[in-house]
Write a structure and sequence with these properties.
The protein is 42% helix and 11% strand. By secondary structure, the chain is of the alpha+beta class. It has two domains: 71 residues, no CATH class; 125 residues, Aldehyde Oxidoreductase, domain 4 (2-Layer Sandwich), CATH 3.30.365.10. A three-stranded mixed beta sheet has the order 3-4-5. It has a two-stranded antiparallel ribbon with strand order 1-2. A hairpin with a 5-residue loop joins strand 3 and strand 4.
Length: 223
């Protein structure tokens, strides 16, 4: 934020278009790999081309006309520019724990922590999509180190990617355990049981229990 504000201030004082000031200070494509004064290494990039594309997508050439039209309606229109490089993902490891509660609800414990992005909605819906459990029956507990051992937190656009990957792995393990339980209950081979993101199905059986129903069956058997 501070750097971009300084760029805008410099553009005003120099009488230069803020887009052009950034463009002329970019590392050029033929300069890669490029080592900065602080030792950071940039391996590749075409920053000017991306800036041009952003301007086209935002229809910058039509901005003045839009601002004039808005002014006639008593409205103010502004335009901001921020060009930055974000280190994404970071630590790819993440944890997830899914608990089937006695009241038929489900709690998923995640290692990331929402800062207002609405992660809880995404995580609940993703788990619902993978298991068939209604999203309204899923609660999300975030970033509680007393309840989940591993968590990388939030940052670098990593949360949905890493957390949903961890959730997917957890669902796969649950499916494996539930399949083995059902195989014992139905007297069939585990290889004859499939799960289609909503119900378990077994060859030679009419039973098609949901994941919540299997969890209740296992609880009743003391499993």
């Amino acid at each position: 934020y501070v750097l971009e504000r300084l760029m805008d201030r410099a553009a005003r004082e120099l009488g230069v278009d803020p887009w052009e000031l950034r463009r002329i200070n970019f590392i050029k494509p033929d300069q890669f790999p490029y080592t900065t004064a602080t030792g950071e290494l940039y391996d590749v990039g075409d920053f000017a081309r991306l800036l041009t594309r952003a301007g086209e997508e935002a229809d910058c050439e039509g901005f003045a006309a839009r601002r004039t039209a808005d002014a006639k309606r008593g409205l103010l229109r502004g335009q901001g520019l921020c060009y930055y490089i974000e280190s994404i993902l970071g630590d790819p490891s993440e944890g997830a724990k899914v608990v089937f509660e006695e009241d038929g609800s489900v709690t998923i414990y995640v290692g990331t922590q929402s800062n207002g992005q609405g992660h809880e909605t995404v995580y609940a819906q993703f788990l619902s999509d993978q298991t068939g459990i209604p999203a309204e029956r899923i609660s999300v507990v975030q970033g509680d180190s007393d309840l989940i051992k591993k968590g990388g937190g939030t940052g670098g656009s990593r949360s949905v990617t890493t957390q949903n990957t961890a959730t997917l792995a957890t669902v796969a393990k649950i499916t494996e355990v539930f399949t083995a339980f059902l195989a014992d209950e139905l007297g069939v081979a585990a290889s004859d049981i499939t799960f289609d993101d909503e119900r378990f199905r077994a060859e030679g059986s009419n039973a098609t229990p949901t994941m919540l129903e299997v969890a209740e069956m296992a609880r009743a058997k003391g499993r």
